[in-house]
Amino acid sequence: MSQNTFPKGFLWGGATAANQIEGGFDLGGKGLSSADMIPYIPKEERTGDHTSDLTSQQIEEALNGTSTRHFPKRGGIDFYHHYKEDIALFAEMGFKAFRMSISWPRIFPKGDEQQPNEEGLAFYDNVFDELRKYGIEPVVSLSHYEMPIHLIEEYGGWTNRKLVGFFEHYAKTVFARYKDKVTYWMTFNEINCITLSPYNGGGIVSDRYDHVDQASYQGLHHQFVASALAVKAGHEINPQSKIGCMLALMESYAETCNPDDVLKTLKEEQLNMFFTDVQVRGYYPSYIQRFFDEQNIKIDMEPGDTDILKNHTVDYLSFSYYMTFVTSASPHGEKAPGNLFAGIKNPYLESSEWGWQIDPVGLRIALNKLYDRYQVPLFIVENGLGAIDKVPEDGLIEDDYRIDYLRKHIEQMKEAIKDGVDLMGYTAWGPIDLISVSTSEMQKRYGFIYVDQDNEGNGTLARSKKKSFHWYQKVIETNGEVL
């Protein structure tokens, strides 16, 4: 029987990350995190599309207080104090699910302790209880671009095998604590980004390594093992739990039918699917070895690693989708930026204010290809439009551009379900305005809910509903039938 509409129990909601919303960086016994070191750099001073990969000097200045920069992720949008108000607004929209992350250094301030921070555990108890009060399922990432800074400075981040044990201990701690409150978990957010943004993804400070790719892929292997061990522990502690992986999806089109372009696109796709091949299928695919050989990368594995990966694969595959790219074998053409990626501009697509290309049909293509490849439930856990919202005198932001973007993507999700794809949910990125991961700015807004705060952290933090709030409310109420 083909499914012609969104299934009953579809997980409609929104997605966030602790380091982008939570704040309270020095409250409740929380330790400093990698994200607390990332400054806001005005656009005119940036040398690249994103500023989240730090140098040793930047970290030193952030730690010793000599930096003159503003650190937006330390304050977020103060979800730490506003969570009841925010969750009430999510409930008013009708959320079935809320994707969030736990801040590792709020549970283990340094990351290598044996005993967790009870005040941190209690905070998430309160958040989960508040979600449950409204019947909202928490979808919880264990690691979303954040780790204790101590693990970076003392151990070298994920390049060090010891982090596997530290992460496993952290995972077991929260699985046991919240086994009656959380069913849906994810291990590492956008796990492929460790190779593109080593500091963000793996606590790897690039200027400390002669061969950054070697360090990144070694760190990635440690994350693969840690993720599999977390899946093992989660299933043992609560057999009902569902634990997924998470990929930043890079769907790319060959620029022409030139076989060289098609081959290059295939290779790009393999490099994107490599991460989920390991976590869903349970082994390193054969094609990756040639890439390692050509890049002079050698993965150091311990005995038993292959069995761990094989025996503890994920229950579902979640991913972020914002844009598509065009690939050519010959470097040329106007570039189109992305969240942490860039490619050739596609002349058939429109672009956002940040130059990200808008491709709803690409989402249907990606869903079909992923489901054909893996045959496991899929979960879109990030998708949205970053834009500058202008606040009119009456206060109601008319964000029809956001509604249009989301409507077109949801329409293509429905088409993919008709195609036979098993899609379990959709959590739009940034249901409430938050700090940008790539640039630490506030003006690139995604939310259905406006937060009164600027790039420098000024503002009242007052929350207000945008036009899209009421639109998404109707989408959820009708299970995607009224768009």
From TrEMBL:
<dbReference type="InterPro" id="IPR033132">
    <property type="entry name" value="GH_1_N_CS"/>
</dbReference>
<dbReference type="Pfam" id="PF00232">
    <property type="entry name" value="Glyco_hydro_1"/>
</dbReference>
<dbReference type="InterPro" id="IPR018120">
    <property type="entry name" value="Glyco_hydro_1_AS"/>
</dbReference>
<keyword id="KW-0378">Hydrolase</keyword>
<feature type="active site" description="Nucleophile">
    <location>
        <position position="382"/>
    </location>
</feature>
<dbReference type="GO" id="GO:0016798">
    <property type="term" value="F:hydrolase activity, acting on glycosyl bonds"/>
</dbReference>
<dbReference type="InterPro" id="IPR001360">
    <property type="entry name" value="Glyco_hydro_1"/>
</dbReference>
<dbReference type="InterPro" id="IPR017853">
    <property type="entry name" value="GH"/>
</dbReference>
<comment type="similarity">
    <text>Belongs to the glycosyl hydrolase 1 family.</text>
</comment>
<keyword id="KW-0326">Glycosidase</keyword>
<protein>
    <submittedName>
        <fullName>Glycoside hydrolase family 1 protein</fullName>
        <ecNumber>3.2.1.-</ecNumber>
    </submittedName>
</protein>
